[in-house]
Design goal:
This protein has 107 residues and is an alpha+beta fold. 18% of the residues lie in helices and 31% in strands.
Length: 107
């Protein structure tokens, strides 16, 4: 079974995560099948957190049957790749700020 997880990198007290595809029973520190993007949980000066994601490959792995972890599922839900999971005690999940894919300039 294949899963999509966050692999922790960075220094002590300065986490930085890679969004990776790997076998579900292997540790996130092992070599992944593919790296889909990165996630920096430390906010910038403007208060936003940096997320890079390859939308096409993420959709492919979800279509193949890869199961995202809870934290990756929240990132993918903000990117409108999967529907948001309902939270306990809430009837409808609240809409959050979506992640927009990068736009390519047309010539």
């Amino acid at each position: 079974m294949i899963s999509i997880k966050l692999a922790r990198h960075g220094l002590k007290n300065t986490p930085f995560y890679h969004i990776v595809v790997l076998q579900s029973r292997s540790r996130p520190t092992r070599k992944p099948i593919e790296q889909l993007g990165t996630f920096n949980p430390i906010p910038n000066k403007d208060g936003s957190k940096d997320i890079t994601l390859n939308f096409e490959r993420a959709k492919y792995w979800i279509g193949v049957g890869a199961k995202p972890s809870d934290s990756v599922a929240r990132i993918l839900a903000k990117a409108d790749i999967i529907p948001p999971r309902p939270r306990p005690g809430m009837l409808n999940p609240s809409p959050s700020t979506p992640i927009k894919p990068p736009t390519t300039p047309s010539a």
